[in-house]
Amino acid sequence: MFTKYQKIYAKRARGLFDNWRVVMVILTQAVFYGVLWLEWNGRQAVLLHLVERKFYIFGIVFWPQDIIYLAIILIVSAYALFLVTAIAGRLFCGYACPQTVYTQLFMWIENWVEGDRNARIKLDNGPLNARKIRIKLTKHLLWGALAVWTGFTLVGYFSPVKDLWQNLLTWNLGGWETFWIFFYGGFTYLMAGSMRELVCRHMCPYARFQSVMFDPDTLIITYDAERGEPRGVRQQGRNSESGQGDCVDCGLCVRVCPTGIDIRNGLQYECIGCASCVDVCDEVMGKLGLPKGLVRYSTENAMARHLGQKEILGHIVRPRVLGYAAVLVLVLIISAWFLSNRIPLKVDVIRDRSMLSREVDDGRIENIYTLNVMNTEEKVHRYRITVDGLAGIELAGKADIEVPAASAMSVIVPVRVSPESGKSGANPIRFQVVAERNPDIRVQEKASFLLP
After folding, report:
1. Nearest to 281, CA basis, from 273, 272, 291
2. What stretch of H or E contains 140?
3. In 3D, which of 222, 287, 275, 220 has the Cα closest to residue 250?
4. How far is the C-alpha of 157 from the C-alpha of 178, rounded, in Å?
5. Domain limits of the chain?
């Protein structure tokens, strides 16, 4: 907190893990930027429509009453993260975390405009001239464009993107849409362009509680101190004659680290598991003719007991991992069952409270109900309404209703019954709503009928 901040100029490390990081950046952003433009049944395939209070996920429509599915998604996401962390450490942080992904995108722009690490240092330390202003301005304009497009894309998941795009072209965006585009875009610019590693080091809560999910058999980025120490300069192809280790103390593992740590000091909470230090160290070892793996993915037990790859993989199945996996599988099975057996019909019954009951011309007692019928399927349905629970009970009004696809309609239903059919006061009855073309789509709702 009291240490003077020093800007980190991370050097890009080429290698296997860098290639995987590029693949993950492209994959995640292709999904994020591309899915909202897909169409399904003549509408946006994925649309969390806040105005209509309906979530369209391809062929499924979720309503506010389906909030349980949001809870399930959060539980599945949490346990999947716990499982991945228990097995492979901060793999999510290094390859799929939005902070890491967007920082990577912003750094690619920075490297393209300003040059590599040495060029960026030289530019920052150089005098303020026309060339420096031009380069910096170009970089920040590109950052700003990416950030605003990211904000636009996010809002496009909550407001129909084609309408949003048309409103943008005609300068007719609504106030809230404009606010959230620039709010999210501004934070993307701030987090990925300016704060970068500070988010991982000081703001991310995951970095603080990750140790709870670690154990000695969790895969982490490790430095083989037994092999690497003592450090010192070595000549290519020569073995040490004075007990010198393989680490040549080149410092490249520090220069490529996006959070600026020295992996040779052991596991640190700032490490995001990106494995840039592994790539660059393997490159150095290859040039010196030394075995790769001085810095590598390994576990505490493997380093202490000199375990091989097969033995490391054999320790993956352990109580902690089995526990996370069991809970995750159980939640997935239950949620899949509920989703597959989900009835695409919801009914709410509200009795008219302004008039408890009344006697009609034929001497029977009448109660008035309002039925809110929600068709959650993406096709039109006609429903038949019936009622039972008391002898001779019947509907006095409309007995069917046609509801458009993914819509809700209300119908007022008078219900009549003879006074002697029940006791004085509240009597339980049941409304049943059934789709005419598909009898399997049916819902029963309880209500009460008041007799004087």
Report:
1. 291
2. helix 130-156
3. 287
4. 14
5. 1-37+89-307, 345-451
Under DSSP, the state recorded for 9 is -
269 phi and psi angles, rounded to 5 deg? -65, -20
Average of pLDDT values for 42-47?
90
Find the length of the chain: 452
pLDDT at 341: 86
State yes or no: pLDDT of 51 exceeds 90: no
Q: How confident is the model at residue 145 (pLDDT cuts 50, 70, 90)?
A: very high
If DSSP codes are grouped into helix, strand and coil, which group holds residue 406? coil
pLDDT tens per residue, range 429-441: 999 999 998 989 9
Exposed / middle / buried, residue 29 (Cβ in 10 Å: 0-12, 13-18, 19+): middle
In three-state secondary structure terms, 445 is strand
Which of helix, strand or coil describes residue 93?
Answer: helix
The pLDDT tens digits for 61-78 are: 888 888 888 888 889 998
Which residue is it, tokens 């591309």? 34
pLDDT score for 399: 86
What is the model's pLDDT at position 206? 82
| Cis ω for the linkage preceding 439 (within 30 of 0) | no
Q: Outline where DSSP puts E strands in 132-278.
A: 220-223
Beta strands 407-417 and 365-375 are antiparallel
Q: Distance (Å, rounded) from C-alpha 197 to C-alpha 200?
A: 5
Instruction: Indicate the DSSP class of residue 10.
Output: P
Residue type, 304: A
Name every residue whose Cβ is closer than 8 Å to that of residue 388 and which is 6 or more positions away in sequence: 429, 430, 432
Token representation of residue 253? 């593992």
Question: Please, are residues 158 and 50 in contact by the beta-carbon 8 Å criterion?
Answer: yes
Report the mean per-residue pLDDT for the chain. Answer: 90
| Cα–Cα distance for residue pair 195/207, rounded to 1 Å | 16
Percent of the chain with pLDDT over 90: 61
pLDDT score, position 1: 52
The helix (run of H) or strand (run of E) holding residue 105 is: helix 98-114
Classify 345-451 by CATH class: mainly beta
Per the rule left: phi > 0, alpha: psi between -120 and 50, beta: everything else, 260 is left
